[in-house]
Amino acid sequence: MIVDDWIAEKIGLPDGEALTREALEAWQLARLRETLSYAAARSSFYRERLTEPGLHSSFDGSSSAVDHNNFRSLRSLSDAARLPFTTPRDLAEEGIRMVCIPASQVDRIVTLPTTGTTGPPKRVWFTGADQELMIDYIHHGLPVMTGPGDVFLVLMPCERPGSVGELVAAGVERIGSRALRVGAIPADGSRDGEALEIMRREGVTTGLATAPTAARLAAKSAGDAVIAGNMRTILLSAQFISDADRRVIEAAWGCKAYEHYGMTEMGLGGAMACEVRAGYHPREADLLFEIIDPDTGEVLPEGEYGEIVFTTLTRRAMPLIRYRTGDFSRWIPGRCPCGSVLKRLGKVADRAERKDY
Ligand SMILES: [Zn+2]
User: Fold this and answer.
1) How far is the CA of 292 from the centre of ligand 1 (A)?
2) Whether this model's pTM surpasses 0.70
3) Phi and psi for 259 in degrees, rounded to 5?
4) CA 232 to ligand 1 center in whole angstroms
């Protein structure tokens, strides 16, 4: 339970004290209030949203003008259900008004196409510290599948500082793996031979790729004893992951495939499989997840399928509050057999509209 130990340390529990849901949720509530106050004080978009008539008064019992009240009347995490949603459309059209820091403190801006509309693209802003959160997550989340001595192939964009592949490469290097930054390869397969040659020559043992890319490479290298002999694990990320693709990969390479769910708006990392490989544990110290009914907006109970909504708890450049992902999943009831106290998100059902990385 490396991730639990990391979160225990991150939220300030005394040395050796095990993570509990109570401690984690107390941290989440404190960070949620802090994020709301921070966003309302620094962003005109959130100031308006969070002080709409009725909303403000429902939180502090008065309808007085904006004092941002530290959102003390938010007494439990379930009170988050009273906060307004933020949508991808808000991000595209009003993103600039969500930014909470001066331009001089911005380290990276990721531009995402807005699929299916003619509207402006979404832009997600990050400070250096915002990006360090992802590197730290990889450092503490990926030892389940990689360690010193591994040769880790990165088949996602890593040419620019702060791109997903580069942050993952930096994280696995902290674990002691050797990262090979190859970058994304085209879907038409024109660089597949090159990627497979690198896998043979460098003795690649693990890596990161989208599921379709890994499945294509696996199918082309089925029967290759060198590659299969070296490969131990693979991390599949960024797109909907079909069971068929996963089976092709595991069969051809004789390796264990781990799945990850995330998107740029989450700060890339969202939730990751543990060794049980049934569901994804969210990065709960940094993100508050909810599952809602997409039609009514009501929060759904454990076990029911709905839309995934998240709130960033530790981001500075551009916090996102109750951001509607358009993705669907459910909470898997009960404690994970791995022993973690983190919740478990079930398989993400539909990512048709997302092309974030
Ligand atoms: Zn688990």
Assistant:
1) 23
2) yes
3) -110, 150
4) 19
Ligand 1 center from residue 145 Cα (angstroms) = 13
C-alpha 281 – ligand 1 centre gap (Å): 7
90 Cα to the center of ligand 1, angstroms = 34
Give me the pLDDT at residue 123, please.
95
pLDDT digits (tens, 9 = 90+) for 203-220: 999 999 999 999 999 999
Give the domain CATH number at 62.
3.40.50.12780
How far, in Å, from the CA of 337 to the mean position of ligand 1?
6
What is d(CA 187, CA 308) in angstroms, rounded to the nearest whole number? 28
Helix, strand or coil for residue 29?
helix
pLDDT at 1 > cutoff 90: no
117 or 347, which is more confident? 347
From ligand 1's centre to the CA of 342, what distance in Å? 8
Strand 306-312, strand 287-292: pairing: antiparallel
Split at pLDDT 50, 70, 90, the class of 308 is very high
The alpha carbon of 187 and the centre of ligand 1 are apart by a number of angstroms equal to 32
301 and 199 in one domain? Answer: no
The size of the chain, in residues, is 357
Structure tokens at 245: 């693709």
CA 282 to ligand 1 center in whole angstroms: 10
Scored b (16 or more CB within 10 A) or e, 272-303 reads: bbbeeeebbbbbbbbbbbbbbeeeeeeebeee
**277 Cα: distance to centroid of ligand 1 (angstroms):** 7
Range of the domain at 290: 2-104+280-329
**Assigned domain for 309 exists:** yes
